[in-house]
């Protein structure tokens, strides 16, 4: 009987919410709107799409850089081998081997910085922001329930008041109040999460954008010392690279 009662309540709640959603889409039902909060939610969803695009592009850059570094390492080994076997061109093959190996080493260092950037932005987008959006979905569901029961109560209040309708109005008032409290709580939870998310996002992206800029600038300037210093500044340690693994990044 308890299970049947739970199923009955769930079915009734689902029906009311579905009716509310359809009514809103048809322009017949009224909808509770928190303009400031919903504007913040829209901005968050738009930013998430933009951050996901940056993430995809950074991952593409990492893959391409890894392939280039792998080729430079192989080219350096090939030059070094020919340097030993071609006495008349020993010097020429030798300094080309050294150049390619140095480029590969700097590329590995840059790859470490880029992969660290990717890992941090991925955590922000797919964990931190996604967690906030899950709370937003709960808030939106609570809003629909609140409006559904509010509409029910308003309709009952417009009708006659007698011995048959008063108990229904009282029960509707009780259900409305319960869903209003749930809606108010979820709205407060979303506001708090959005505030903390914004603070966290600024800190994370500030550090990662500085890292990305400094590493790229040092790499293309050929400043090996500055490149290595950038990784030390952000406590990034490189493992010994392996041919099959695209990333040997180790975050301390």
Automatic annotation (TrEMBL):
InterPro entries: AH/BAR_dom_sf (IPR027267), AH_dom (IPR010504), Arfaptin_fam (IPR030798). SMART domains: Arfaptin (SM01015). Residues 32-232 form the AH domain. SUPFAM superfamilies: BAR/IMD domain-like (SSF103657). Pfam families: Arfaptin. Transmembrane segments: none annotated. Residues 34-61 form a coiled coil. The keyword Lyase does not apply. Keywords: Coiled coil. PANTHER family: ARFAPTIN-1 (PTHR12141:SF4), ARFAPTIN-RELATED (PTHR12141). This is Arfaptin-1 isoform X7. It comes from Erinaceus europaeus.
